[in-house]
Design goal:
Order of helices and strands: EHEHEHEHHEHHHEHEHEH
Shape: globular
Number of domains: 1
Largest sheet: 8 strands, parallel, barrel
Structural class: alpha/beta
Strand content: 15-25%
Number of strands: 8
Helix content: 40-55%
Number of helices: 11
Bound molecules: phosphoenolpyruvate
Distance between the termini: 17 Å
Strand order of the largest sheet: 1-2-3-4-5-6-7-8
Length: about 250
């Protein structure tokens, strides 16, 4: 399975900054990226097309959106549809990032609609899950992750060509943007659990669903994280904004 090295640029970068960062990243990594890796950039909507122009000649480079609305088109002021994302060159989209769950208050039911609709429209969906610190302290990691997977994937068709477009990102909320990275044991346990639950909910084909880790991944910790069983890539926020630091992550 290919490892997905994903950058989430959140609400950062103007078009010029996004273009410059993508160009610099390519200068640093082109010709050096391992064959079993894919590099995914998720810029803000306004920079999707400039980044698409920079990366579209490079097969290992992929474009992704941070969010979308689950409809083809319509009277949804301020929203973006999967059709528009595919049109601009997106292959991937994130759903359920913790900032959308906890700051934008997106409900589990709404996220399930997005996962289903995005997959049906042909996007590859990275469905993000993760527990908060109080939930971890209360010994509820298994319960929270199981619940998020069960609810988010409730509407997913088990057909092979649909499931083959699904990925999961385990991102403990307490490790996102905090500099606090989960320990190897915690990551191993969570990813093992996610794999077991995916197989339980979807069947044997779920062994091929990539499970990414996210939460303060940096050049100096990525190597040990990427080698943990069932870690099939990383989703990187802060350290992906700088081409130098993200290049070291991609090449680790
Ligand atoms: C993220 O935005 O998904 C993320 C993991 O952020 P950071 O790497 O900054 O913790």
């Amino acid at each position: 399975m290919k490892k997905i090295m994903a950058a989430n640029w959140k609400m950062y970068k103007t078009q010029q900054e996004a273009k410059d960062t993508a160009k610099k990243l390519l200068e640093l990594i082109d010709g050096k990226v391992k064959e079993d890796r894919e590099v995914l950039i998720c810029p803000p909507f306004t920079s999707l097309s400039v980044v698409a122009d920079v990366i579209n000649r490079y097969q290992y480079m992929k474009l992704g959106a941070q969010n979308f609305y689950p409809a083809i088109e319509g009277a949804y002021t301020g929203e973006i549809s999967p059709k528009m994302l595919i049109d601009v060159g997106c292959e991937y989209a994130l759903v359920g990032h913790s900032e959308r769950r906890h700051i934008l208050n997106e409900s589990p039911e709404f996220l399930a609609q997005k996962v289903e609709f995005g997959l049906e429209m042909g996007l590859k969906i990275i469905y993000c899950i993760g527990e908060k610190l109080d939930q971890r302290k209360a010994g509820k990691v298994e319960q929270v992750l199981t619940d998020q997977l069960e609810k988010g994937l409730a509407k997913v068709s088990k057909e092979k060509d649909i499931v083959s477009r699904l990925a999961i990102a385990y991102e403990p909320v307490w490790a996102i943007g905090t500099g606090e990275v989960a320990g190897e044991k915690e990551i191993y346990e969570a990813h093992t659990l996610v794999r077991e639950k995916l197989i339980e909910f979807i069947g044997g084909q779920a062994k091929d669903i990539p499970i990414l880790y996210g939460g303060s991944v940096k050049p100096d910790n990525v190597k040990s994280i990427i080698n943990i069983d069932n870690v099939d890539g990383v989703l990187v926020g802060g350290a992906s904004l700088d081409a130098n630091s993200f290049s070291q992550i991609v090449l680790a």
